[in-house]
Design a protein that fits this description.
single chain, alpha/beta, GMP Synthetase, Chain A, domain 3, 7-stranded mixed sheet, 5-stranded mixed sheet, 7 helices, 35% strand
Length: 291
């Protein structure tokens, strides 16, 4: 499958509203995510959702399943409520991006295809021979792309979801990177504070909802010098800058921890004036802070 598909974070399709009962005969735009050969649509109910799903199948030969998201991400495993609307009755697929292959089960684990560019950036930023700790690794997408791009590194992929860890092991074998990604079934806080204390060069915190809660533990896992890849959701007003507001919050977190802030970016918009941001936070190095 061509990698150009993975470069598109979401797909657009013109759907004739004449196919939907009660709508005007004018084209509209339907947004949907694609994971492997599965399309995921939102706000699709009843006959309208079925009409959208059937139209997606007709117009996209590589799509074999259409799922409808019926609820938000919830629970300790961060699962979306999904149901099959059209096509094959399954939620498993093979997803390809950045030259890597991933077995994904959307019914038992969280995965976002919209982070394809972010995963590529992180993989490029990791240096030779680094030991990397991914505290919320899931099926191993960040971890495997790092190891694939950097053959000298070792990545420890922690997750509390046994289904995600089983899939991570499968993905490690599928990408021929055995011994470079180590899948760990554990609570990230316990593992980082006991098993990985002062032992890694870089920590990833790719779960924005938990980054603040797990930040001190992430710092404790770093060697004397190291990097934390920090993610957070930032809500702003019309006058506020997401990055500037994030820096204020982060400086409160790193106060007294011999750390500095560098290289912040907006990863994506997740709602009205609500953003996912990413920052590199350096421990034990004299670097100029982001102002």
């Amino acid at each position: 499958m061509s990698n150009r598909h993975s470069k598109t974070q979401w797909a657009k399709l013109k759907v004739l509203q004449s196919e939907m009962r009660g709508h005007k005969k004018s084209p509209t735009r339907l947004r949907f995510d694609i994971v492997g050969d599965i399309a995921i649509i939102k706000n699709a109910h009843g006959k309208t959702g079925l009409s959208w799903a059937q139209s997606i199948l007709r117009n996209n030969k590589r799509v074999k399943v259409v799922l409808a998201q019926t609820g938000s991400v919830q629970g300790i495993f961060r699962l979306c409520k999904l149901k099959v609307v059209a096509g094959d009755n399954r939620m498993t697929t093979i997803h390809r991006e950045n030259k890597c292959l991933f077995h994904i089960d959307l019914g038992t684990m969280h995965f976002s295809p919209r982070l394809v560019h972010e995963r590529r950036l992180i993989a490029k930023s990791v240096g030779f021979w680094e030991a990397v700790l991914n505290m919320f690794g899931g099926a191993g997408t960040f971890s495997i792309e790092i190891a694939y791009k950097n053959p000298s590194v070792t990545v420890f992929n922690i997750d509390i979801n046994p289904d995600a860890i089983r899939m991570c092991l499968r993905n490690v074998l599928a990408n021929n990177i055995r011994n470079r990604v180590i899948a760990v079934l554990a609570d990230a806080k316990e593992a980082a504070s006991i098993v990985f204390l002062n032992s890694v060069d870089r920590v990833l915190l790719p779960l924005p909802e938990k980054s603040c809660e797990y930040f001190s533990v992430a710092v404790s896992a770093l060697k004397r010098k190291g990097v934390i890849q920090y993610y957070d959701f930032i809500q702003t007003t019309k006058e506020e800058s997401p990055l500037e507001k994030a820096v204020v919050k982060i400086k409160g977190l790193i106060n007294g921890k011999n750390m500095s802030v560098r290289e912040g970016r907006i990863v994506k918009s997740v709602g009205p004036r609500r953003y996912l941001v990413s920052f590199e936070l350096y421990k034990g190095e004299e670097r100029e802070d982001v102002s």
